[in-house]
Amino acid sequence: MTDNLVHPEPKLNWRFPRVFWIANTAELFERAAFYGMFIALVLYLTREIGFSDKHAGYLAACFSSVLYLLSTFLGAWADKFGFRRSLMVAFVLLTAGYALLGAAPNAPSAFAGLMSVKGTAIAALSLIVCGGAMVKPVISGTVAKCSDERHRARAFSIFYQIVNIGAFTGKSIAAPIREHWGLQYINYYAAVMAFCAFVFVLLFYRDPDVKGKAKTAREVALGLITVVKNFRFMALILIVAGFWLIQGQLYATMPKYMLRLLGEGAKPEWLANINPFVVVLLVLPITHMVRNFQAVNAVGIALFIIPISALFVAFSPMLATVTGSSVSIFGLFTLHPITLMVVIGIALQGFAECFLSPKFLEFASKQAPEGEVGLYMGYSHLHTCIAWAVGFALSGHLLERYCPNPTTLTPEVHAQWQAAIETGSAMPDAYAHAHYIWFVYAAVGIAAFIALLVFKFITASIDRKRA
Description:
Layout: H1 18-38, H2 41-47, H3 53-81, H4 83-103, H5 107-110, H6 117-145, H7 152-180, H8 184-204, H9 217-229, H10 231-247, H11 249-252, H12 254-262, H13 268-272, H14 274-289, H15 295-314, H16 316-323, E1 327-329, E2 333-335, H17 337-365, H18 373-378, H19 382-402, H20 411-423, H21 436-466
Antiparallel strand pairs: 1-2
């Protein structure tokens, strides 16, 4: 009789192998290092390395896009080389890259004239790209291999929280380092974090059980070609890239925009932390709320909200004409109108992300042909690659046009800018249209939303005819 009894499935739990927690701890160090450096990257390239806004934008665009694209190829290499050895190599590269980036302003004296300041910075960023692209697939691969199908969602929810905690920590620490020691020392801090991760992996990390055949570099490249040739999937990638292009301005535009309009006390690093704070706070309830939504509708909500976030920042001069240079927040404290609108804009970005992130993979998976879902999901990060390549390059052009580097101003105009920062007097005419930058990003978001509506109409028509 007992053979006929139905045994209930074991309850879900939060127990994972030791290597799972070790990998997540290493990820915490790595994210704290990366985001501390990344929030100040374009500022550092301009102030300390000597790039113009435009050229700093191009370099940051190349850095961030290649980092995302290269991770797929280095993930295939890590499967063969071994996770532990790959992580050790990655953290050595990251430690060296961050340290070299911090030392770049002193390059001529340090390297006896063999490398210029700009050449040293480019070499350092190349090391960081290789190391970072290697860490991404290894840590996420460890999370996947340490969890079964029933516990996979819980495993990645922990991983996602660790990523956000690391990002929050790194950006929080970057602000006081910049103010008290200088931008160079943010890179030295990142190097210390990367070295701590290396030591941690060396002492405690052991390879998880690896089953299955690793892909060759040729197979990965052929997979990329297959994905690019799928018009429907690439259209979806390009549309969603509009969202991430705007979200990426937390790093590309916002730091320079705030510091040039409000001075060194603006703390853009702390403002950027509003995004992960909102995501961590709201992603679970919003995911539950939209669980029965069609994926395209949830993504549409995100694309509807994201241009509004840019418009709030763009309308800050209009608020200033009403409130003056400070806005009282419930009588508790005051904020500059620009700061208030940036806070609202960033909070809206985080809110929109809660609708997009849980549903995007579901939406994208439905565009994959039968039997190729895994392949297509492996390349779903291409939207960020494209968004950051275009977004950082566009940011450099817009900053030079509407919110220029104060060091490029004539002495008279620079004196007027300095007085405006210190006393709150009128800004020079060079900054009169700085808010136009955000109208451009709002237009990108609106175009993405309209493109999604067109995409939905066309694909629905095609599917009806096929049915």
